[in-house]
């Protein structure tokens, strides 16, 4: 009981380690079986048969296969090449075992002539045909296709009649003692032994068995992988050839350009000179346009500043003239009032001393001066209005 419990603990630990490993890795990892991803690993196909290979050394996981099927729609991983190498090595090993079995049979069985061997081979071929047809009949019956299975049974009856005729020919070509011996033959597909006198049930069990059908599946898958790999390699070679041709074309074009430059150095120099000259002219044009724009902006600014200065100067000139006129007018009015005051005083003083005639003369003179003063005031006001306009 203790040993059993320890074994369970070890098995559970190994299973947990396997689960964690599967969770960590991806389908592109080298530890993953590429044949399993393509559903053609011999360890899966021949499982439970007489040639069961056991567990594969690489990781098998259906989830990884599903991930690969999804990712392969957008990208080509070329796993077909790895799977093809795997199946080729397995089939080559099977073919070597077949050749070894044939040599062993040749050593143990009695040697017969080439004519008798050809007749025996004909019987084996008919046995193989009958066995395949019977296996097909069983498959169609399991699927419920009764009409097709009946047609195949008719073909089986025809093959049986041919077999009886071939066996009669073979029996008549050799002694009865030798004919009774069991003549074996190695199956070219699965390396199993077949008897010349096997009944239909034995043939059907062999050709419809999982071992024989598994080998057929592996061989057909190998041929398909060879075709796919050949197509992909051809496509890759074409792409590589196309890229190489493009590189060679570019190199030839570069070489041609360099040769043309070496042959016509003056022309190349003139081209370079023209390019340089055009560049310099374009730069000069840009510089001129920039300078013109600067001059325009400066001229506009100077005009605006001069206009503002002239306006301010005109305003200051007008104001100064107005102020001077006002001052002169005030001064003249003060002087006039002072003169009038002095004249009035003189008149008062002289009125007391002079006669009435002189007083009249002075009054006329005063009226005349007052009239002249009003005319001067009117003239100064008109000049001031003209200056303001």
TrEMBL record:
Biased composition (Basic and acidic residues): 232-254, 334-361, 374-389
Cell location: Nucleus speckle; Nucleus, Nucleoplasm
One Pfam family cited in the UniProt record for this chain: LUC7
Keywords: Coiled coil, mRNA processing, mRNA splicing, Nucleus
Compositional bias segments (type: Basic residues): 255-318
Region described as Disordered: 232-389
Top-rank taxon, per record: Eukaryota
Coiled coil: 91-169
Signal peptide: none
Keyword Isomerase: no
Coiled coil as UniProt keyword: yes
Quaternary structure and partners: Interacts with SCNM1.
Sequence similarity: Belongs to the Luc7 family.
Role: Binds to RNA via its Arg/Ser-rich domain.
Protein name per its UniProtKB record: RNA-binding protein Luc7-like
Species of origin: Erinaceus europaeus
Lineage: Eukaryota, Metazoa, Chordata, Craniata, Vertebrata
């Amino acid at each position: 009981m203790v040993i059993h419990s320890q074994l369970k603990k070890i098995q559970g630990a190994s299973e947990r380690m396997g689960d964690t490993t599967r969770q960590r890795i991806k389908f592109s990892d080298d530890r993953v079986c590429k044949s399993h991803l393509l559903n053609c690993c011999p360890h899966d196909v021949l499982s439970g048969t007489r040639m069961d290979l056991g567990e594969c050394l690489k990781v098998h996981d259906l989830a990884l296969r599903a991930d690969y099927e999804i990712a392969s729609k957008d990208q080509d991983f070329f796993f077909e090449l790895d799977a093809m190498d795997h199946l080729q090595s397995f089939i080559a090993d099977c073919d070597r075992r077949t050749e070894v079995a044939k040599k062993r049979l040749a050593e143990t069985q009695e040697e017969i002539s080439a004519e008798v061997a050809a007749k025996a081979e004909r019987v084996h071929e008919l046995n193989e045909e009958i066995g395949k047809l019977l296996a097909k009949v069983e498959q169609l019956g399991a699927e419920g296709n009764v009409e097709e299975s009946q047609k195949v049974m008719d073909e089986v009856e025809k093959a049986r009649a041919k077999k009886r005729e071939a066996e009669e020919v073979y029996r008549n070509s050799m002694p009865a003692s030798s004919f009774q011996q069991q003549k074996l033959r190695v199956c070219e597909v699965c390396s199993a032994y077949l008897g010349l006198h096997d009944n239909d049930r034995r043939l059907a069990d062999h050709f419809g068995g999982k071992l024989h059908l598994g080998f057929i599946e592996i061989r057909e898958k190998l041929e398909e992988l060879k075709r796919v790999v050949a197509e992909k390699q051809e496509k890759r070679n074409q792409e590589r050839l196309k890229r190489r041709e493009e590189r060679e074309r570019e190199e030839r074009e570069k070489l041609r350009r360099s040769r043309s430059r070496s042959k016509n150095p003056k022309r190349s120099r003139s081209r370079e000179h023209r390019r340089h000259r055009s560049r310099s002219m374009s730069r000069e044009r840009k510089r001129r346009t920039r300078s013109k724009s600067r001059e325009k902006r400066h001229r506009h600014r100077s005009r605006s500043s001069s206009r503002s200065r002239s306006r301010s100067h005109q305003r200051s000139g007008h104001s100064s003239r107005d102020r001077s006129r006002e001052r002169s007018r005030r001064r003249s009015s003060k002087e006039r009032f002072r003169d009038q005051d002095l004249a009035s005083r003189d008149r008062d003083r002289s009125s007391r001393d002079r006669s009435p005639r002189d007083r009249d003369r002075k009054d006329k003179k005063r009226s005349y001066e007052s009239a002249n003063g009003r005319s001067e005031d009117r003239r100064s006001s008109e000049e001031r209005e003209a200056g303001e306009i």
